[in-house]
Every structure is written in structure tokens, then in C-alpha cells.
Amino acid sequence: MKPVIALVGRPNVGKSTLFNRMTKSRDAIVADFAGLTRDRHYGQGKQGKHEYIVIDTGGFEPDASKGIFKEMAKQTRQAVAEADVVLFIVDARAGLSAQDHEIGNYLRRLGKPALLVANKAEGMREGAQLTEFYELGLGDVVAVSAAHGQGVRSLVEQALGQL
Ligand code: GDP
Ligand code: MG
To answer: What does the annotation say about its assembly with partners (predicted)?
Structure first.
């Protein structure tokens, strides 16, 4: 069985961009508009000898007033349940949001192997800007730039190393 890696996070953090990097596949719709990718998408990736499956999720309703967990139940919880390891993507430039905290709390309670990934980190120094993400209580922050392909190889290695 190939390990399954789920990508979760609020809209527009770069999940689909990362999905495409990790799978060399165009299955997911990369949009300049938050929330366009509505469903889960599966892709296959390979790094060295190691093959894996990636699940992209449409994320959460941009309008959080209706309740994030309802949307999460439909889209993301299944993906997380199917996954061996979860990559929780946050936006290094936008910083932490209420939605990030909700997702972080959910994942922490679940106790499934999860890596916290700060995307859009190109050109950033590791220090100052990323320290706030430690508030989520999910441990170390892995800085990547999905758009520029930086840190993605190492991320996949760390994800597979969780298994
Ligand atoms: P999703 O909603 O989480 O799937 O996010 P998308 O993959 O659709 O990306 C949302 C926006 O962020 C798009 O405009 C992407 O081009 C942009 N984006 C994705 N990755 C990066 C990155 O590493 N750096 C920067 N600066 N922008 C990115
Ligand atoms: Mg998407």
C-alpha cells in the first residue's frame, strides 16, 4: 500500500499548487480565487523509490460564519481519515487566522501524524515571521514555497518519515 498524504488548510494557502508540485499532475484546479477547488482530488507522486498518494482538498468555505466544521465534515475530514499523514498548510505571508486555529485544534485532538507547513515562504528568513505558527501547538514549522518548488523535496521526505 502506498502511503497517503492529505493536504488540508484554509482556502488560498496553496494546497493545490503544492499538490501539483508533489504529483506532477494537473488534476487539481489551481485558482487565483479562494475555494474554487471544491472536491477532493487524488494524485500520485514519486520521490526516489518511494511512491505515495496525495489528496488535495477544497478547503473551507471562505465565509466562516456558517461554521467551518460543517464544511470540514464534508470535504476534509474524510481526506484526513484516509490519510496516513496530514500536511496542514498555512500561509507564511498572511500569518495565523481563526480558521487556522480551528483546523489546528481539530488535528491536535485527532492525534494523527501531521506536519505544519508554512507555504509562500520564498525569500523569507526562517526566524521572526514563522514563530507565530508555533502557537498552534503542532511542533516545528516546515517552510516551503510551492510556487517556486522550494523545500518541497525535503517536505515529502519528512512526511514519509512520519510513517
Ligand atoms: P488553495 O486554495 O489552498 O488550493 O491555494 P492555490 O494552490 O489555489 O493557491 C492560491 C494562490 O496562492 C494562487 O494565487 C497561487 O499562485 C498562490 N501561491 C501558491 N503557492 C505559493 C507560493 O509558494 N508563494 C506565493 N507567493 N504564492 C503562492
Ligand atoms: Mg485548491
So the answer is: Associates with the 50S ribosomal subunit.
The CA 33 to ligand 1 mean position distance, Å, reads 10
What is the extent of the structural domain holding 100? 4-161
Mean pLDDT of 117-141: 90
* Nearest ligand for residue 62 CA: 1
pLDDT band at 26 (very low <50, low <70, confident <90, very high): low
CATH of the domain at 28: 3.40.50.300
How far apart, in whole angstroms, are the C-alpha atoms of residue 62 and residue 53? Answer: 27
Q: What is the DSSP letter of 150?
A: B
Residue 15 counted as an annotated binding residue: yes
pLDDT band at 90 (very low <50, low <70, confident <90, very high): very high
Q: How many domains does the chain have?
A: 1
Q: What is the DSSP letter of 146?
A: T
For residue 57, say whether it is annotated as part of any ligand binding site. yes
